[in-house]
């Protein structure tokens, strides 16, 4: 719970009363590797916070899984494209390691916004950060060469590259695993 409170305090100050309110709104889940927080076709009804573990976002397109994002300890997890309008998701969110997460339902998130003193501000700042990150990722896919996208991945996710299979990284970058191997080999030769 401390990690969740610190993550919220990244955006807003919390009083002890605020912390007590938040503790009543979240539910702890213990998940095993391979489980899904969300599957395509479901409506995303919760925002999750990772206390321990790692997840990936992916979509199945023509029988191939396309990884679009990762979240790790200390980060929020949600398919906002489904959560905000309450429409079926096109995204799967899969647990890649045994995980402990906190779940906050949409109704409880609304209570957090209303009952925590600066709750609305927290929501606005957090979703703004998600929006900017998504725009950067989309722009990178259209403008950066694969090697640059790999270097950006290493900067953005420095501590998870060793925790996930290389084909997930290749999928996230938008290339085949063989191309990622060539990029890694070139980078190793220049360093």
Q: Briefly, what is this?
A:
With 191 residues, the protein is α+β, with helices and mostly antiparallel strands.
Written overview of the protein:
- This protein has helices at residues 2-9, 16-25, 80-83, 106-115, 119-143, 146-156, 166-173, 177-190; strands at 27-31, 36-38, 46-52, 54-61, 64-72, 76-77, 92-95, 99-105.
- By secondary structure, the protein is of the alpha+beta class.
- The strands form 2 sheets. It has a 4-stranded antiparallel sheet with strand order 1-8-3-6. Strands 2-7-4-5 form a 4-stranded antiparallel sheet.
- Strand 4 (54-61) and strand 5 (64-72) form a beta hairpin.
- Helix 2 packs antiparallel against helix 4 (106-115) and helix 4 packs across helix 5.
- It is globular.
- The mean pLDDT is 93.
Which terms would index this structure?
single chain, 191 residues, alpha+beta, four-stranded antiparallel β-sheet, 8 helices, 8 strands, 24% strand
| Number of discrete helical segments | 8
The overall pLDDT, averaged over residues, is 93
The neighbouring-strand order within the major sheet is 1-8-3-6
Oligomer: single chain
Which SSEs are present, and which pair or pack?
Elements (H helix, E strand, L loop, with lengths): L1 H8 L6 H10 L1 E5 L4 E3 L7 E7 L1 E8 L2 E9 L3 E2 L2 H4 L8 E4 L3 E7 H10 L3 H25 L2 H11 L9 H8 L3 H14 L1
Antiparallel strand pairs: 1-8, 2-7, 3-6, 3-8, 4-5, 4-7
Helix pairs in contact: 2-4, 4-5
